[in-house]
Amino acid sequence: MDVEAVHSEEGRPRAHWEHFTREEQLGVRGVGRSMEQAFELAAQALCALVTDPKRVEVHEELEVTCQSVDHDELLADWLRAVVGAMAGRRLRFQCFAVRLDGLNLFGRGFGERAGSERHGASVAVTGASLTQVSVRQGPGGVWTAEALVDF
Length: 151
Prior knowledge:
The chain is an alpha+beta fold. The protein contains two helices and seven strands. Belongs to the archease family.
């Protein structure tokens, strides 16, 4: 199911992340004023499946670089790198910063190690598969980056 757009006071879609379901699978979506912002918010939506980003403090920084053949694969590589850091380094993230140069992504994640009482119930992240990955620009120049996720 698609969710209705979240609008700002000016009537334009506001930057946000969200979860959705499609064919009984859970998805993550970032909507932004730029492709970079949509990638940042898609990663935040992914992390919010595990821990509420508002409960994460910034004590560590993760640097990620990815290169791919198209924007859909670039988003998949970016989200896989975030999941890898959540699984391998046990990081939980509050926010992200992404810079794109063509099909090259330079990203940073800001957060802390898992285990704090603020993070709530501990969810073990071991990896994730991503399907139906999509990056597209819609009306008014708004970008959407989304994927179905299976932990």
